[in-house]
Amino acid sequence: MDTAKLVVGNDGKAIMIKDDVNSKWKEELSKPLNLSETKKKVIPKLHLLAKGMIPLEGYSLITTFNHYNIQSEEKEDLIALRDAMWYNAGHPVNVSFKKESACSNTVKHLLVEAGLGSVAAKLPYIEPEVRKAKSYITVLETVSPIIKRVGRPIEVVTVNNPPIHLRSLDSRENVLNSIKHWCTRNAGNVAFCFGFYMAMVENGDQFEGARNLETSYSLKALKETYIGSYCVET
Length: 234
Hints:
The protein has 234 residues and is mainly alpha-helical.
C-alpha cells in the first residue's frame, strides 16, 4: 500500500483514504478494527515505541554499529523481542536518516514534547571530539577574561571564521579531524585555565553557566597529560 494514498483529516488526527485508491484497498482500509481491550491498551504503548525507535536505532548504529545494544546478556526471548522491535520493524528506514535523527536537536525537542524524555535523554548523539571541544571552549570562555584582567593573556589557537571553515570540509569525518586538531593545539592552554578554574572553585568561587566542569572527563584527563601547565595555577 502506498502511504501517499493516505492523508491526515481536517482534525489533524483521523486518517482519510484518498479517492484514487484501488477499491479493494479502500474496502480493506475502511473495515472497522474491532480491537480487543488488550489490543487497545497495547497499541498506544507501541505508538510511543515507534516514536523513539528511529533516533535510538540511529544512536546504536553510530555507537555500536548495531541497531540495538547486543552486548548485554539477555534471555533468548527478550533478544527476539528486541530484534523484532529495533531491527525488523525499522529495517526499511534509511540508515543515514536514522543517524541524522540521532544527531538532531529538533528530534530531541519533539520527543520531549511528546512525553518521551527518557528516550530523549541520550540525544542528540555528540562525538567524543565534539564533547571535548565543548568542554575546552567552556573553560576558556570562563577563565580567560579573569586571567587577562590580572595581566596574563592566554594565546589560544583559533580558526578564521569557524562556521565557514567547517562547512567547507566535505565529510563529517574531516570536520571531526579538524576539531580534534584544534583540541590538541590548545590542550596546554586549556590545562592551564582548568588549573586556574579548579583553584578558584576550591577557594569557594562560583561560576554561573560553567558549573561542575571539575567532573568533565576531557578536562580531568588534561591534569594527567599536561600536569606542568595545570600545576602552574594549582
